[in-house]
Amino acid sequence: MTRRLPSLNGLRAFEAAGRHGSFTAAARELNVTQTAVSRLVRLLEDRLGFALFRRHASALELTAQGQALLAGLTDAFDSIARLTESVEAMRGGPVLTVGVGPTLAVSWLIPRLATFYRSHPAIEVRVATGGATRPVRDDWTCTIRRDTDALPGYTAERLFPSIVVPVCTPELASTLRSPDDLRNATLIVVSNMPNEWPHWFEAARLRSPPHPAGEASFESNAMAMQAALDGVGVAIAQFPYVSDALATGRLVAPFPIIAHTRDSWFLEYRPVRREDPALLAFREWLHQEADRERQVETELVNRGSMGAIRARTKVRKR
């Protein structure tokens, strides 16, 4: 039997847009442009011969046909995801794929994997960049994400809080005596995270936020952290991104002030994977590493001494 199916990309674009009520939100989930989502939905409507949305200035409204199609598509895609996960769980070798944002992968997860392999040499860990900024893929065993809530249909286990801290080279830190001195510094900003500096200014109880001498903007946290390492200026960083650089003294936190955000870092996975032996081993190890990370964060708050943090973190020669 030959199936006459519309474009699967069009169906995915419509399902995401219908679920979110927005082409823009659907584009973020699918990691494509808003224009691409709109075009795929328009092509699907042309193929079906009727409109799926009433397009308003600030929202999308499903037509009767759109409502009927959305309900069936969401169930169908959920069924495909569950079927795929069930089949993958039948594979013989212990393989674990973890989805994680590129900066957390390079700065925090990968440097710690050697300790996992020493305890679990038979488990193959595959690191897929994504998680924090891209849709979670069905072929991932789990993901490490920063968010306020768990993904729908996922089990979430809190690893550590989301906090931000200013960091810079030791040479630059020597010129900073108080947060007010940031007025004379170049502040490094991640363009899609413009609120992290203001959030820290509030935690530092500055009467008025500094107007820095300069500002350097980068598109990703990885670029911003490299700029800080190169002495470009003072960056505001998620603590896991810089904890190892602080431990080795390549970066310092010039002020013992951190700012908690509304988010947390989570390990998330589908409930069907709960008894996966590779995931069980990985989550136990990951929670141990998260406990150490929280201890280092506490050291920063309580002592305000990077020397103490370096001494404590270097224990990871284990």
UniProtKB/TrEMBL annotation:
Q: What is this protein called?
A: LysR family transcriptional regulator
Write the lineage as a comma-separated list.
Bacteria, Pseudomonadati, Pseudomonadota, Alphaproteobacteria, Hyphomicrobiales
Question: What PROSITE patterns does the entry give?
Answer: HTH_LYSR (PS50931)
Superkingdom classification of source? Bacteria
Q: Name one Pfam family in it.
A: HTH_1
Which InterPro entries does UniProt cross-reference here? Answer: LysR-type_TF_proteobact-type, LysR_HTH_N, LysR_subst-bd, WH-like_DNA-bd_sf, WH_DNA-bd_sf
Q: Which GO terms describe its biological process?
A: DNA-templated transcription
Coiled-coil region:
none
The record's family statement is:
Belongs to the LysR transcriptional regulatory family.
Q: Name one GO molecular function term.
A: DNA-binding transcription factor activity
UniProt keywords, alphabetically? DNA-binding, Transcription, Transcription regulation
Q: Which Gene3D superfamilies would you find in this protein's record?
A: Periplasmic binding protein-like II (3.40.190.10), Winged helix-like DNA-binding domain superfamily/Winged helix DNA-binding domain (1.10.10.10)
